[in-house]
Amino acid sequence: MIRQSTASAPGKVILSGEHFVVHGSYSVAAAISKRVSVSIREIRGTKSQIVSTGVTSDLDSDDGRFPAVKTVARTILSEARKEAPRITFQISISSEIPPGSGLGSSSAVSVASAAALMDFLGLSWNKAEIANFALRGEKAVHGNPSGIDIQASLLGGMILFKKGQEPRSISVRDPFKVLVVYSGKKRSTSKLIVKVAQRKSKYPNTFQRLADSASEISLEIVEASRRSELHEIGKYFGLAQSQLAWIGVSNPTLETLIEYLYEREEVLGAKLTGAGGGGSVIAAIRQDSAEAVLKFMTGRYPYSFVSEIPQEGLRWKKRKN
Ligand code: MEV
Fold first, then answer.
1. Is 63 a catalytic residue?
2. Diameter over CA atoms, the chain
3. Residues 134-187: pLDDT tens digits?
4. Could you tell which of 13, 18, 186, 200 is best to mutate to test the pocket of ligand 1, judged by most ligand atoms within 8 Å of the CB?
Protein backbone atom coordinates (compact mmCIF):
# COMPACT_ATOMS: atom_id res chain seq x y z
CA MET A 1 0.00 0.00 0.00
CA ILE A 2 1.20 3.52 -0.83
CA ARG A 3 2.31 5.58 2.16
CA GLN A 4 -0.16 8.45 2.70
CA SER A 5 -0.99 11.00 5.44
CA THR A 6 -3.77 13.58 5.71
CA ALA A 7 -4.45 16.51 8.03
CA SER A 8 -6.76 19.51 8.00
CA ALA A 9 -6.83 22.77 9.93
CA PRO A 10 -9.36 25.62 10.20
CA GLY A 11 -9.07 29.27 9.28
CA LYS A 12 -9.68 31.85 11.98
CA VAL A 13 -11.33 35.13 12.80
CA ILE A 14 -9.91 37.68 15.20
CA LEU A 15 -12.60 39.08 17.48
CA SER A 16 -10.38 41.72 18.99
CA GLY A 17 -6.81 42.95 19.36
CA GLU A 18 -5.32 42.33 15.90
CA HIS A 19 -2.15 44.37 15.27
CA PHE A 20 -2.04 45.48 18.92
CA VAL A 21 -1.21 41.82 19.73
CA VAL A 22 2.06 42.18 17.81
CA HIS A 23 2.93 44.91 20.36
CA GLY A 24 1.95 42.93 23.47
CA SER A 25 -1.84 43.39 23.85
CA TYR A 26 -4.36 40.64 24.57
CA SER A 27 -6.19 39.41 21.50
CA VAL A 28 -9.08 36.97 21.00
CA ALA A 29 -9.34 34.59 18.05
CA ALA A 30 -11.58 31.66 17.12
CA ALA A 31 -11.43 28.82 14.63
CA ILE A 32 -14.06 28.98 11.84
CA SER A 33 -15.88 26.41 9.72
CA LYS A 34 -13.69 26.88 6.61
CA ARG A 35 -10.70 24.54 6.45
CA VAL A 36 -7.56 23.65 4.54
CA SER A 37 -6.79 19.97 3.86
CA VAL A 38 -3.34 18.64 3.13
CA SER A 39 -2.63 15.15 1.97
CA ILE A 40 0.79 13.68 1.32
CA ARG A 41 1.55 10.55 -0.66
CA GLU A 42 4.64 8.77 -1.85
CA ILE A 43 5.46 9.27 -5.56
CA ARG A 44 8.04 7.86 -7.99
CA GLY A 45 10.91 10.07 -9.12
CA THR A 46 13.53 12.14 -7.37
CA LYS A 47 11.72 15.45 -6.73
CA SER A 48 9.07 16.04 -4.10
CA GLN A 49 6.26 18.34 -5.23
CA ILE A 50 3.46 20.56 -4.02
CA VAL A 51 0.22 20.76 -5.94
CA SER A 52 -2.92 22.84 -5.53
CA THR A 53 -5.72 23.85 -7.93
CA GLY A 54 -3.81 22.66 -10.99
CA VAL A 55 -0.51 24.41 -10.07
CA THR A 56 2.53 22.20 -9.36
CA SER A 57 5.88 23.28 -7.96
CA ASP A 58 8.95 21.28 -6.94
CA LEU A 59 9.73 21.48 -3.25
CA ASP A 60 13.29 22.60 -3.96
CA SER A 61 12.31 25.27 -6.52
CA ASP A 62 12.42 28.96 -5.57
CA ASP A 63 9.67 30.00 -7.96
CA GLY A 64 7.78 31.95 -5.28
CA ARG A 65 4.90 29.43 -5.17
CA PHE A 66 3.64 27.91 -1.90
CA PRO A 67 6.14 29.79 0.32
CA ALA A 68 4.52 28.71 3.61
CA VAL A 69 4.34 25.00 2.77
CA LYS A 70 7.85 24.96 1.29
CA THR A 71 9.31 26.59 4.39
CA VAL A 72 7.48 24.15 6.69
CA ALA A 73 8.53 21.10 4.66
CA ARG A 74 12.14 22.18 4.16
CA THR A 75 12.50 22.97 7.87
CA ILE A 76 11.08 19.61 8.92
CA LEU A 77 13.28 17.74 6.43
CA SER A 78 16.44 19.56 7.46
CA GLU A 79 15.79 19.23 11.19
CA ALA A 80 14.72 15.60 11.00
CA ARG A 81 17.08 14.46 8.21
CA LYS A 82 18.68 11.64 10.17
CA GLU A 83 15.46 10.08 11.39
CA ALA A 84 13.34 10.70 8.26
CA PRO A 85 13.11 7.98 5.59
CA ARG A 86 14.39 9.11 2.15
CA ILE A 87 11.21 9.07 0.13
CA THR A 88 9.83 11.31 -2.58
CA PHE A 89 6.36 12.69 -1.96
CA GLN A 90 3.63 14.93 -3.27
CA ILE A 91 1.85 17.41 -0.98
CA SER A 92 -1.70 18.18 -2.24
CA ILE A 93 -3.51 21.17 -0.80
CA SER A 94 -7.20 21.83 -1.01
CA SER A 95 -8.50 25.01 0.60
CA GLU A 96 -11.89 26.55 1.35
CA ILE A 97 -10.23 29.83 2.39
CA PRO A 98 -9.30 32.48 -0.19
CA PRO A 99 -5.63 33.53 0.22
CA GLY A 100 -5.20 37.14 1.35
CA SER A 101 -8.72 37.26 2.79
CA GLY A 102 -7.64 37.78 6.41
CA LEU A 103 -9.10 34.43 7.42
CA GLY A 104 -5.86 32.62 8.21
CA SER A 105 -5.28 30.58 5.06
CA SER A 106 -1.49 30.61 5.41
CA SER A 107 -1.63 29.53 9.07
CA ALA A 108 -4.11 26.77 8.34
CA VAL A 109 -1.99 25.43 5.48
CA SER A 110 1.16 25.66 7.62
CA VAL A 111 -0.43 23.80 10.55
CA ALA A 112 -1.97 21.08 8.38
CA SER A 113 1.24 20.60 6.33
CA ALA A 114 3.42 20.36 9.42
CA ALA A 115 1.19 17.70 11.03
CA ALA A 116 0.69 15.71 7.82
CA LEU A 117 4.42 15.71 7.01
CA MET A 118 5.53 14.70 10.51
CA ASP A 119 3.06 11.83 10.37
CA PHE A 120 4.07 10.90 6.80
CA LEU A 121 7.73 10.71 7.81
CA GLY A 122 6.87 8.60 10.85
CA LEU A 123 8.18 11.27 13.26
CA SER A 124 6.56 11.70 16.64
CA TRP A 125 5.30 15.22 17.37
CA ASN A 126 3.40 17.29 19.86
CA LYS A 127 1.39 20.50 19.43
CA ALA A 128 4.28 22.76 20.50
CA GLU A 129 6.47 21.31 17.72
CA ILE A 130 3.72 21.74 15.13
CA ALA A 131 3.26 25.35 16.28
CA ASN A 132 7.01 25.95 15.86
CA PHE A 133 7.23 24.52 12.36
CA ALA A 134 4.00 26.22 11.30
CA LEU A 135 5.21 29.59 12.60
CA ARG A 136 8.24 29.29 10.32
CA GLY A 137 5.83 28.90 7.38
CA GLU A 138 3.72 31.83 8.55
CA LYS A 139 6.83 34.03 8.87
CA ALA A 140 7.78 33.23 5.27
CA VAL A 141 4.50 34.88 4.23
CA HIS A 142 3.75 37.48 6.94
CA GLY A 143 7.17 38.72 8.10
CA ASN A 144 6.69 39.33 11.82
CA PRO A 145 3.47 37.63 12.96
CA SER A 146 2.52 37.32 16.64
CA GLY A 147 1.66 33.61 16.34
CA ILE A 148 -2.05 34.05 17.18
CA ASP A 149 -3.28 32.74 13.80
CA ILE A 150 -1.22 29.55 14.15
CA GLN A 151 -2.50 28.88 17.67
CA ALA A 152 -6.17 29.49 16.72
CA SER A 153 -5.85 27.07 13.81
CA LEU A 154 -3.92 24.46 15.76
CA LEU A 155 -5.89 24.48 19.02
CA GLY A 156 -9.28 25.37 17.59
CA GLY A 157 -11.96 26.76 19.90
CA MET A 158 -11.71 30.34 21.08
CA ILE A 159 -8.41 31.56 22.53
CA LEU A 160 -7.15 34.52 24.50
CA PHE A 161 -3.64 35.20 23.27
CA LYS A 162 -0.76 37.38 24.45
CA LYS A 163 2.75 37.14 23.02
CA GLY A 164 5.13 35.22 25.28
CA GLN A 165 2.32 33.49 27.21
CA GLU A 166 0.59 30.14 26.68
CA PRO A 167 -2.70 30.76 24.81
CA ARG A 168 -5.74 30.34 27.04
CA SER A 169 -8.72 28.33 25.75
CA ILE A 170 -12.04 30.03 26.46
CA SER A 171 -14.98 27.78 27.16
CA VAL A 172 -18.07 29.16 25.42
CA ARG A 173 -21.31 27.96 27.02
CA ASP A 174 -23.40 28.14 23.83
CA PRO A 175 -21.49 28.31 20.55
CA PHE A 176 -22.80 31.25 18.49
CA LYS A 177 -22.99 32.25 14.84
CA VAL A 178 -21.01 35.10 13.35
CA LEU A 179 -21.25 36.52 9.86
CA VAL A 180 -18.01 36.71 7.88
CA VAL A 181 -17.82 38.80 4.70
CA TYR A 182 -14.78 38.88 2.42
CA SER A 183 -14.45 42.31 0.78
CA GLY A 184 -12.82 40.73 -2.29
CA LYS A 185 -9.77 42.94 -1.82
CA LYS A 186 -6.54 41.02 -1.11
CA ARG A 187 -3.90 42.61 1.10
CA SER A 188 -0.44 41.95 2.47
CA THR A 189 -0.29 41.30 6.22
CA SER A 190 3.45 41.94 6.37
CA LYS A 191 3.10 45.45 4.83
CA LEU A 192 0.28 46.32 7.23
CA ILE A 193 2.31 45.15 10.23
CA VAL A 194 5.12 47.49 9.11
CA LYS A 195 2.64 50.37 8.60
CA VAL A 196 1.31 49.97 12.17
CA ALA A 197 4.85 49.85 13.59
CA GLN A 198 5.57 53.17 11.82
CA ARG A 199 2.44 54.72 13.30
CA LYS A 200 3.48 53.48 16.73
CA SER A 201 6.90 55.12 16.46
CA LYS A 202 5.31 58.41 15.32
CA TYR A 203 2.67 58.51 18.11
CA PRO A 204 4.03 56.23 20.89
CA ASN A 205 1.82 57.51 23.73
CA THR A 206 -1.45 57.47 21.82
CA PHE A 207 -0.58 54.05 20.47
CA GLN A 208 0.10 52.72 23.97
CA ARG A 209 -3.30 53.99 25.21
CA LEU A 210 -5.02 52.28 22.30
CA ALA A 211 -3.04 49.08 22.90
CA ASP A 212 -4.10 49.09 26.58
CA SER A 213 -7.71 49.61 25.67
CA ALA A 214 -7.47 46.87 22.99
CA SER A 215 -6.45 44.52 25.82
CA GLU A 216 -9.45 45.63 27.88
CA ILE A 217 -11.79 45.10 24.94
CA SER A 218 -10.34 41.60 24.48
CA LEU A 219 -11.01 40.71 28.11
CA GLU A 220 -14.58 42.08 27.84
CA ILE A 221 -15.16 40.07 24.66
CA VAL A 222 -13.98 36.91 26.44
CA GLU A 223 -16.55 37.48 29.21
CA ALA A 224 -19.34 38.30 26.74
CA SER A 225 -18.47 35.24 24.61
CA ARG A 226 -18.47 32.92 27.61
CA ARG A 227 -22.07 33.99 28.21
CA SER A 228 -22.94 34.32 24.48
CA GLU A 229 -24.01 37.97 24.97
CA LEU A 230 -24.21 38.99 21.34
CA HIS A 231 -25.24 42.61 22.02
CA GLU A 232 -22.14 43.14 24.16
CA ILE A 233 -19.91 41.47 21.59
CA GLY A 234 -21.37 43.70 18.87
CA LYS A 235 -20.79 46.83 20.96
CA TYR A 236 -17.11 45.92 21.47
CA PHE A 237 -16.70 45.13 17.76
CA GLY A 238 -17.75 48.73 17.04
CA LEU A 239 -15.17 50.11 19.50
CA ALA A 240 -12.42 47.85 18.16
CA GLN A 241 -13.17 49.01 14.61
CA SER A 242 -12.64 52.68 15.53
CA GLN A 243 -9.26 51.84 17.06
CA LEU A 244 -8.23 49.88 13.99
CA ALA A 245 -9.25 52.78 11.76
CA TRP A 246 -7.06 55.09 13.85
CA ILE A 247 -3.96 52.93 13.35
CA GLY A 248 -4.58 53.07 9.60
CA VAL A 249 -5.61 49.50 8.75
CA SER A 250 -9.19 50.21 7.72
CA ASN A 251 -9.99 51.76 4.32
CA PRO A 252 -12.99 52.93 2.23
CA THR A 253 -13.65 49.40 0.90
CA LEU A 254 -14.03 48.04 4.43
CA GLU A 255 -15.94 51.06 5.69
CA THR A 256 -18.45 50.81 2.85
CA LEU A 257 -18.89 47.13 3.65
CA ILE A 258 -19.43 47.87 7.34
CA GLU A 259 -21.94 50.67 6.57
CA TYR A 260 -23.81 48.27 4.31
CA LEU A 261 -23.97 45.72 7.15
CA TYR A 262 -25.32 48.32 9.59
CA GLU A 263 -28.25 48.89 7.20
CA ARG A 264 -29.64 45.67 8.69
CA GLU A 265 -31.08 45.97 12.17
CA GLU A 266 -30.10 42.33 12.89
CA VAL A 267 -26.44 43.40 12.79
CA LEU A 268 -25.28 44.18 16.33
CA GLY A 269 -21.76 45.33 15.52
CA ALA A 270 -19.05 44.81 12.92
CA LYS A 271 -15.32 45.20 12.50
CA LEU A 272 -12.53 44.23 10.16
CA THR A 273 -10.88 40.95 11.15
CA GLY A 274 -7.21 40.09 10.69
CA ALA A 275 -4.73 42.48 9.15
CA GLY A 276 -7.25 44.83 7.46
CA GLY A 277 -6.38 46.94 4.40
CA GLY A 278 -8.94 44.75 2.62
CA GLY A 279 -9.58 41.17 3.64
CA SER A 280 -12.70 40.39 5.67
CA VAL A 281 -15.21 41.82 8.13
CA ILE A 282 -16.85 39.95 11.00
CA ALA A 283 -20.30 40.85 12.37
CA ALA A 284 -22.19 39.94 15.52
CA ILE A 285 -25.78 39.22 14.46
CA ARG A 286 -29.13 38.31 15.97
CA GLN A 287 -28.92 34.53 16.05
CA ASP A 288 -32.37 33.85 14.63
CA SER A 289 -31.82 35.98 11.51
CA ALA A 290 -28.35 34.86 10.42
CA GLU A 291 -29.60 33.38 7.14
CA ALA A 292 -31.52 36.53 6.15
CA VAL A 293 -28.48 38.78 6.72
CA LEU A 294 -26.28 36.29 4.88
CA LYS A 295 -28.59 36.37 1.86
CA PHE A 296 -28.59 40.18 1.87
CA MET A 297 -24.77 40.31 1.98
CA THR A 298 -24.15 37.55 -0.55
CA GLY A 299 -25.91 39.59 -3.24
CA ARG A 300 -23.15 42.20 -3.04
CA TYR A 301 -20.24 40.23 -1.52
CA PRO A 302 -20.32 36.68 -2.92
CA TYR A 303 -17.81 35.18 -0.48
CA SER A 304 -19.89 35.61 2.68
CA PHE A 305 -20.71 32.86 5.14
CA VAL A 306 -22.02 32.19 8.61
CA SER A 307 -19.73 30.25 10.91
CA GLU A 308 -20.65 28.90 14.27
CA ILE A 309 -17.79 29.54 16.65
CA PRO A 310 -15.81 28.03 18.07
CA GLN A 311 -14.82 25.13 15.80
CA GLU A 312 -12.45 22.21 16.02
CA GLY A 313 -8.72 22.80 15.41
CA LEU A 314 -6.18 20.48 13.76
CA ARG A 315 -7.54 17.09 12.63
CA TRP A 316 -5.41 14.34 11.21
CA LYS A 317 -5.66 10.70 10.24
CA LYS A 318 -2.98 8.25 11.22
CA ARG A 319 -0.76 7.26 8.30
CA LYS A 320 -1.79 4.35 6.05
CA ASN A 321 1.01 2.20 4.64
C1 MEV B 1 -3.43 38.74 11.47
O2 MEV B 1 -4.45 37.76 11.44
C3 MEV B 1 -3.32 39.33 12.83
C4 MEV B 1 -2.24 40.39 12.98
O5 MEV B 1 -2.35 40.87 14.33
C6 MEV B 1 -0.85 39.84 12.73
C7 MEV B 1 -0.41 38.85 13.79
O8 MEV B 1 -0.78 38.98 14.97
O9 MEV B 1 0.36 37.96 13.43
C10 MEV B 1 -2.47 41.56 12.05
1. no
2. 62
3. 999 999 988 889 999 999 999 999 999 999 999 999 999 899 999 999 999 998
4. 18
